[in-house]
Specification:
- By secondary structure, the protein is an all-alpha fold.
- The protein has one domain.
- The protein contains four helices and no strands.
- The longest helix has 25 residues.
C-alpha cells in the first residue's frame, strides 16, 4: 500500500471538505444551522493545511510506515 498517495489524497480531501462546509455556512448564514457549519468547516481545513489528522493517528491507516533503519 502506498502511504504517500493516501496522505496526499486525505490532505486535499480535508481542505476541500473544510472549504465546502465553510461555504455551506456562509450560504445558509441566515438559517439556524448556518453558523454551525461555518465553524465546523475550520476543523478539516486546518487539519488539511497543517497536514495533521487526529483520526489518522487513532486508526493508523494514514501514517507513514516506521523505518527500521538504525
Amino acid at each position: 500500500m502506498d502511504f504517500n498517495k493516501i496522505r496526499k489524497f486525505c490532505r486535499v480531501f480535508r481542505i476541500f471538505l473544510g472549504l465546502a462546509l465553510i461555504l455551506a455556512g456562509v450560504i445558509n448564514y441566515g438559517a439556524f444551522s448556518g453558523a454551525g457549519w461555518f465553524f465546523l468547516g475550520f476543523i478539516p481545513l486546518i487539519a488539511g493545511i497543517v497536514n495533521f489528522c487526529p483520526l489518522c493517528m487513532i486508526s493508523k491507516k494514514c501514517d507513514m510506515p516506521q523505518s527500521s533503519g538504525k
